[in-house]
Amino acid sequence: MALGHAAGFPEGEDIERALYGSTVEYAYDSGSTLSRKPDGYWTATYDHAHSRVSGVLVVNNPAPWTWTKNTPVLWQSPDPASLPAPIFPTWATTQLAGIQVECQPAIRSVHTALGLPERWPTGDAFPRE
């Protein structure tokens, strides 16, 4: 599944909660523990919720003039029943490890996969004559 958002720009924490569920702290007499609520896309209360979706690829403001600037992020399914999503070297990745989210940066810049210069396009976006 791919998602590009050009209007509101959710933060990584917003996407994390939407996919993996909200974090919650439970307090006990002996201390406290962190956990995740079953309110995320992949963490719903029924077994293997959305296990057929291996990952969600998110990019901020997808547009021709931002293709070399915005790195797509692949949010990977935590469900062991999901097939592993392919990961391109120009994508950053996130995955759920216990209740923590682990993030890995892209290995290569996006412009290398597109065969474009790093500062593309050049010139003014909408020059007036």
Keywords, separated by commas or semicolons:
mainly beta; 11% helix
| Residue fraction in strands | 25-35%
Trace the largest sheet across and list its strands.
1-4-5-6-7
The ordered string of helix (H) and strand (E) elements is: EHEEEEEEH
What summary fits the major beta sheet?
A: 5 strands, mixed
Write up what this structure looks like:
- Helices cover 11% and strands 29% of the residues.
- By secondary structure, the protein is mainly beta.
- The strands form 2 sheets. It has a 5-stranded mixed β-sheet, with helices on one face. A two-stranded antiparallel sheet has the order 2-3.
- It is elongated, with a radius of gyration of 18 Å.
Question: Brief description of this entry?
Answer:
The chain is mainly beta. It contains two helices and seven strands, in the order E-H-E-E-E-E-E-E-H. The N and C termini lie far apart (41 Å).
Helices and strands in order:
Elements: E1 2-5, H1 12-20, E2 23-28, E3 31-36, E4 55-60, E5 73-76, E6 92-97, E7 100-104, H2 110-114
Parallel strand pairs: 1-4, 5-6
Antiparallel strand pairs: 2-3, 4-5, 6-7
